[in-house]
Design a protein that fits this description.
315 residues; alpha/beta; Spore Coat Polysaccharide Biosynthesis Protein SpsA, Chain A; nine-stranded mixed β-sheet
């Protein structure tokens, strides 16, 4: 198993500098494919404009690599939609896309709904809260898809930069990856152990793949997509690209715990080979109230998985 993982890592790992945008444009034109960039966002008015603006300028105006730039606004209560539109994105509210299918909060829901409105043959997903990154994230992720038709899914990885209270920088980000996803993979999906950051929010895939998969509505979407792709197409259908360094807004531990519960649920479903929901669907936590007393809080864990988008489009 180790030899197989090492061989995959050497064969399917590249660096963003290996994929210059002008070379990718030539490959795109030769293949006759179209490309959509999708940015899921919820209350990200502070950063979404710079993310959208950088992609629009570098990869639509300077080099016409990207055909479509979409922001999926997931129930924002701030000016996320207005800022994104001014920066050059087409903005959709998730609850207004095919409303007859209902609407759920969550990143996976935004990505699933994006499949119903986007048109690109190749899809690149980029988080809206990035503060250190570059448009090379997009071009780097597209490289393996344009170079090898066997590749279905491309995961990014990077140094995760976190600014500490004293102003220093640390690469000890990715708490849910290190404490939940990597142990799960090492124990039960060892063939995936060479994937540097299985939960990376920046990734790319073929539309045909994404429309064929069931999509968890919450934060389990990245892990589910990785596991399901390998289950269907084998490990060589996945590639990964070193994107350099990345910084973004970090979440509180209580919020990360809900994410961790979602990942455990997604993994357990796939271990069991079905869609049964094990145990309860809420996470019990404790917080301190104003009087300093411990108060029990029950938070729902998203359990819904959307059906393959291709089946919805066909209705």
């Amino acid at each position: 198993m180790k030899d197989r993982k090492d061989a995959w890592f050497a064969r399917r790992t590249s660096h963003w500098k290996d994929w210059p945008a002008d070379r990718l444009l030539a490959a795109k034109q030769q293949l006759g494919v179209t490309i959509s960039v999708v940015v899921p966002a919820r209350n990200e008015q502070r950063t979404v404009g710079s993310v959208v603006g950088a992609v629009a300028h570098s990869l639509m105006t300077s080099v016409p690599l990207v055909d479509e730039l979409i922001v999926m606004d997931s129930d924002s209560t701030d000016a996320t939609a207005e800022v994104a539109a001014r920066a050059g994105a087409v903005v959709y509210r998730t609850d207004e896309v095919m409303p007859q299918t209902g609407s759920f909060p969550g990143k996976g829901e935004a990505l699933w709904k994006s499949l119903l409105v986007s048109k690109g043959d190749l899809l690149v997903f980029v988080d809206a809260d990035l503060t250190r990154w570059g448009p090379h994230f997009v071009s780097g992720l597209l490289g393996p898809l344009l170079a090898d038709e066997q590749v279905q899914l491309v995961k990014g990885f990077y140094t995760r930069v976190r600014t500490e209270g004293d102003g220093s920088e640390s690469t000890e980000g990715g708490r849910v990856t290190e404490l939940v996803a990597r142990p799960l993979i090492s124990l039960w999906w060892q063939e995936l152990a060479g994937v540097v950051q299985p939960l990376a929010g920046e990734w790319a895939a073929r539309r045909t793949l994404m429309e064929s998969l069931s999509i968890p509505v919450g934060y389990g979407v990245e892990l589910a997509t990785l596991m399901d792709t390998v289950s269907r197409y084998g490990l060589d259908a996945v590639a990964q690209v070193d994107l350099g360094s990345r910084a973004h807004r970090h979440q509180a531990n209580h919020d990360l715990a809900v994410m961790a519960a979602e990942l455990l649920l997604v993994a357990e479903r796939r271990r069991q080979g079905g869609s049964e929901t094990p145990g309860g669907t809420s996470l019990e936590q404790f917080v301190r109230d104003e009087a300093g007393q411990a108060v029990r809080v029950s938070r729902p864990v998203p359990v819904t998985e959307r059906p393959p988008a291709a089946t919805v489009r066909a209705r």
